[in-house]
Amino acid sequence: MKRQIELAYPAPGYWRATFAHPPINLIDPDTIVELGELVTRLEADHEVKVIVFDSADPDFFLAHYDVLVDRARTAAMPKGPTGMHPWLDVLARLSRVPAVTIASIRGRARGAGSEFALACDMRFASAEKAVLGQFEVGVGAVPGANPMARLAGLIGRGRALEVVLGADDYSGELAERYGYVNRALPDAELEEFVDSFARRLAGFEKHALMRTKAFVDELSLPEDSVFPPALDEFYISTARPETRERLARLLERGLQTRSGLELELGREVGDHRNS
Predict the structure, then answer these.
(1) In whole angstroms, what is the distance from residue 6 CA to residue 52 CA?
(2) Is the pLDDT score of 94 beyond 70?
(3) Per-residue pLDDT tens over the stretch 230-247
(4) Which domains does the chain have, with CATH numbers?
(5) Would the pLDDT of 71 be above 90?
(6) Can you give the pLDDT at residue 272?
């Protein structure tokens, strides 16, 4: 089976992980397994200081979770080292790895794709081409990895509720204004900026980087205990007939394909035709 994540090592202490899972970088159980393996490597490697996550697809960073994957297969995946479901495990461990994690976002990062970006230490976005959002409530589901907890800490309660309850898309520029991402840069400058910043960090001493990050983590990361209840609610909500009907209508109109609906998903979930 083809790997979904391409790894490169641009400089000592600097790794780059590129998502390449056509047609639109959907997240599925294989993605979770690969990310788990990568996080384990990051935890064990004494030399890596910074890792940048980006996408080979200019339109999709990570689209969202694959809604056509057998729910029983996802639910039955073995727990990770934290004792949580492997998706929650990957995100919790990613936030705490002894390396700086950076999401370089060009294209769509919605649902689980947004959850992944939020679990990274920093997010830099293309002002013109990045789109972030949590669309789940728009189809009748509860966001499963509790992005509410991370968003509330980043952007405040009111804006967090706007993002998760409104289920709409946020451009790179608006995401920057809200604090959803660190900053939005002109698309032509994004790669150079992120690469330069990563190389800067890779040139520093790892002990100072990691001990400083650990102090920020102590005050800013949610407790692991807040995540499993949200995933339980996700499974409950996606099993409801109303949610299944909404998803079926979206699938008929192009969900999970390289379609206009996927490109404008935030707008589409608010369309009365899907209600």
Answers:
(1) 12
(2) yes
(3) 999 999 999 999 999 999
(4) 5-201+221-274 (3.90.226.10)
(5) no
(6) 65
Q: Please, are residues 191 and 197 in contact by the beta-carbon 8 Å criterion?
A: no
Which tokens sit at 168? 């709409």
**Which tens digits make up the pLDDT trace of 15-26?**
999 999 999 999
Output the 3-class SS for the chain: CCCCEEEEEEECCEEEEEECCCCCCCECHHHHHHHHHHHHHHHHCCCCCEEEEEECCCCEEECCECCCCCHHHHHCCCCCCCCCCHHHHHHHHHHHCCCEEEEEEEEEEECHHHHHHHHCCEEEEEEEEEEEECCHHHHCCCCCCCHHHHHHHHHCHHHHHHHHHHCCCEEHHHHHHHCCCCEEECHHHHHHHHHHHHHHHHCCCHHHHHHHHHHHHHHHCCCHHHHHHHHHHHHHHHCCHHHHHHHHHHHHCCCCCCCHHHHCHHHHCCCHHHC
Q: Tell me, what's the pLDDT at 269?
A: 96
Q: Could you give the C-alpha distances from 181 to 57, 109, 187, 209, 240, in angstroms and in order?
A: 20, 12, 15, 21, 33
- In this structure, are residues 40 and 56 in contact, taking their beta carbons and an 8 Å threshold? no
Read off φ and ψ for residue 52, nearest 5 degrees.
-105, 130
Longest dimension (CA), the chain: 55
Radius of gyration of the chain (CA): 18
**Predicted local confidence at residue 2, as pLDDT:** 87
N residues, the chain: 275
